[in-house]
Design a protein that fits this description.
The chain is mainly α. The protein is built from 13 helices and five strands. A five-stranded mixed β-sheet has the order 1-3-2-5-4. Helix 1 packs across helix 2, helix 7 runs antiparallel to helix 8 and helix 11 packs antiparallel against helix 12.
Amino acid sequence: MSASFEPSCAPSPFDHERADIILRSSDNIDFRVFKLFLSLASSFFETLFDLPQPSEEMNTDVEIKDGLPVIPVSEDSRTLDSLLRFCYPCTLSEDPALEDFRDVVNVLEAAKKYSLDAIERIVCKSLFNPKILEANSLGCFAIACRARMQDECILAAKHTLREPLVPMWFQEIELITSSELLALLTYHKKCSDAVQTLKDNFSWVTAEYPHWTAAPWMVSMNPHGSYCGCTRSTSGRFSLNGYAGAQWWEVFMDSTFLDLRDKPCAETVRQNVEKAVQTVRQRGCGHCRPVVPGAMSTFCTFFTNKVEELTAKVQLDVRF
C-alpha cells in the first residue's frame, strides 16, 4: 500500500487564516490565498472565481480543506511562490528576485498561462540582469523576441557574441521564427567581419604605440634598447614602426583574431591575453616576465574597447 503524504503549508504570506481559497502545487504544498488579489492581477482568475464555488455541503469532486476549496495546479511550489508574490500587494510581499534562468522561464510560462500580462512583462525584464544574460544569452534573445521587446533583443544579441557563430541547439530556439534566427546569425557574422578589419589595418596599434619605447616588450627589447632574448617574428605582419614583433606577440595576435571570427567580443580578447601572459611567464625572460602582465592588461583594455567600438556600429535587423 503506497504511503499518502499530507500537504504542507506554504510560508507567509500564503498561510493566512482568513484566506478564501487554496492553491495546491504539484509538489503538494498548499498556498492559502485571497481571490481578490489574484482576480485583480489576472482575468483568468477573475473568470474562474466568478463561477459558483463548491462547498462542503455540495456533492462535488473538489476537495474542501478547512472550509476552503482546493485547486490543484501544475506548477511546483518554487514557481507558484514567485508567481503569487508578484500578484500580492507590496505591503504583504515584495516582488521576488529571480536570479536563475530556469526560474524566470518557469514563472514566465505560468504568467502566460494565467493571463498575468503585466507580470509577464516584469518577469521578462528579470532575464536581463547580467548574471542570467551572460549564462543564457541565446535563450534570453528568443524570449525577448517572443515578447516583442526590441531593446532587450538588441541587448541579448550583443551577449550572444560570446557564443560560436553557429550555436548549439538550445531549448528556447522553438520560440523564434526562422527570420529572427537568420537576423541573429547575420548580426553575428557582421560583427565578426567588422572586428577582422583590425587585423587588416594595424594602424590602430601603431597610433597608440608610436615608437618602440612605448612598448619595448612588444618587440623583444628592454627599455634601454637592448634585445631581451625573446624570439622575434620573421613574418613582419605585426611589426611596430619597423621593429619586428616578438614571436609570442604574433602568436597571441593570430590566435586572438582567429577566435574573434567565431566569438567577436571583449571576452575573447581577455581570454587570449591571459594565455599570452602565461606563455611569457613560462618562458622566463628576465625582462618580459615582470613587465608583460601589467602591459598586456593595459593593452587588453585598449583592444577590447576597439572591438566593442566596432561591434556597437552593427545593427540587429529585427523589427516588431
